[in-house]
Design goal:
This protein is 37% helix and 19% strand. By secondary structure, it is an alpha/beta fold. The strands form 3 sheets. A 10-stranded mixed β-sheet has the order 3-4-5-6-9-10-11-12-13-14, covered by helices on one side. A two-stranded parallel ribbon has the order 1-2. The longest helix has 15 residues. The chain is globular and about 70 Å long. The mean pLDDT is 93.
Length: 344
């Protein structure tokens, strides 16, 4: 059966035309699904009974099941969701003063091989389909209904490499952004990549105002090769020009994500190299406190070093922030809850 949560409005129109229906029928369905939140075709009262039977026979509106739910003292919600085939993925809701941010996974497992990351403890099994990613938002919104809230921002920064699942992620983004679906503004949506140059350029050609974040984490090839194996395929002299091209195409500023690892990439020499590396691009840097993963052995950089690193970047004209921490009293690291469950 086809899960209708995975279809953009354009694709739903195409499907309804194939069914001998009209564009209007597709818009009716989209309204029932998203604006009215109906999950039972029989409740779609302005659709003929005969076509409702067709819908029940060929289509569905299934959401992932909540397998484990953790709620931190700061209100962060971390879910382990189970898909129809039994695959389990993580989704997180973080509460900022500007809104509720959903951190969405794009794959079951991850094969990028970043040496510090819990997501890679379990290798990629498959890509998530658009309806499964949409399901992550729907489940969070169901939980938020009790307090009359909803997801207001989306970051595709959970388990997986979004640009290794490009077409499905783009459909998900378009559904989330659609004014007749979740109506989340383009500038409230961010996609994060480890750095696949051709997809970065393609993303810049999409004509969307959606944000791009680059998981950089090192200022030179030697160090990045050591902690991020993707750099061996796409070294910095290939990645940075692709980012420059994206900026030209999209006219959007990028954010570089930089996780602070004790005695690995937290020195002022690294800060100096980072300034030189990203100088050709118009960018922010987001410094990320590290959530230790037992299997990897890395430790978080000392607060004084993080502050000194930030001060150096700021003094040299690089807008820099330190990411706020969430869920420190639950399985905070990305992929940690799933890895613990699968191995336990």
């Amino acid at each position: 059966m086809i899960n209708l949560y995975g279809l953009t409005l354009d694709k739903l129109v195409e499907l309804m035309l194939q069914e001998g229906q009209t564009k209007y029928r597709a818009k009716q369905l989209f309204t029932w699904i998203y604006e009215k939140g109906v999950t039972d075709f029989d409740e779609m009262s302005d659709i003929s009974k005969a076509f409702r039977e067709v819908l029940k026979e060929k289509y569905c509106l299934e959401k992932p099941k909540v397998f484990i739910k953790q709620i931190a003292s700061d209100g962060t919600i971390k879910l382990l969701l189970e898909m129809e085939d039994g695959a389990k993925i993580e989704t997180v809701l973080m509460r900022y003063n500007y809104g509720n941010v959903a951190c969405v996974s794009s794959q079951v497992g991850c094969s990028m091989g970043c040496s510090f990351c819990a997501s890679g403890l379990l290798k990629k099994q498959r890509n998530l389909l658009p309806h499964e990613m949409v399901g992550e938002i729907l489940v969070l919104n169901d939980l938020l209904k009790e307090s009359n809230e909803r997801v207001t921002h989306v970051v595709v920064m959970g388990t997986g490499e979004p640009f290794d699942n490009y077409d499905n992620v783009m459909d998900f983004v378009r559904i989330v952004n659609d004014q007749k679906a979740f109506a989340i503004g383009a500038r409230h949506i961010t996609v994060s990549t480890c750095g696949i140059p051709d997809k970065i350029i393609k993303y810049g050609q999409e004509g969307l105002q959606i944000n791009l974040a680059i998981s950089l984490h090192a200022p030179n090839n030697e160090l990045r090769n050591r902690i991020m194996k993707i750099n061996k395929a796409y070294p910095l002299e290939v990645l940075i020009p692709a980012v420059k091209k994206y900026i030209e195409l999209a006219d959007r500023r990028v954010t570089y994500e930089y996780i602070m690892l004790k005695d690995v990439n937290d020195s002022l020499e690294c800060a100096k190299e980072l300034v030189e590396l990203i100088k050709p691009t118009y960018a922010y840097v987001n410094l990320i406190p590290y959530n230790p993963v037992d299997e990897h052995g890395y430790q978080r950089a000392e607060n004084s070093k993080v502050k000194a690193f930030m001060d150096y970047l700021m003094k040299h004209g690089v807008t820099t922030t330190i990411r706020k921490e969430f869920g420190t009293d639950i399985d905070a690291a990305c992929g940690q809850l799933r890895a613990k469950n699968q191995r336990g």
